[in-house]
Amino acid sequence: MGEGIELPESHHEDHPLVLPVSITISIMAVFVAGVSLLGHRAHTEGLRLETQAASRWTQYQAKSIRLHETQEISDVVNLVAPMNKDLGDKLKEKYAKEVEHYESDKSDVSKEAKNLEDECDLTVRKPIDLMAEKHFWKLGWSSARSRF
To answer: Is residue 59 part of a domain?
Structure first.
């Protein structure tokens, strides 16, 4: 009872295709692993860019809020300025500079965010577009995009 089941011996080593098939399968496994690694890297890069773009849009929103607050304070200063002419003029000038500062910062941050989003789109979509072009070319179509 303690012996177990005996399996018939097979002599695969004697077959002439064992070595070429084994080497081919090994090479294909390495190729698939490499492609998988590159795909994961592209995906990670896309996520990094997407996170940076989201961060820039959050910064844009904060700048926008500060801009509106500064504009409201400027409106209040314009109402109160006639009471104390010198102080009112100084405050008007101060808040006018702040409004300009936040408006320019807002546009700069918006441009950065849009550039990051475009770069993210290229990073994520470029491999997909290349693969689609390759497969549609095999089918005899001139362009994958012309079909969709």
So the answer is: yes
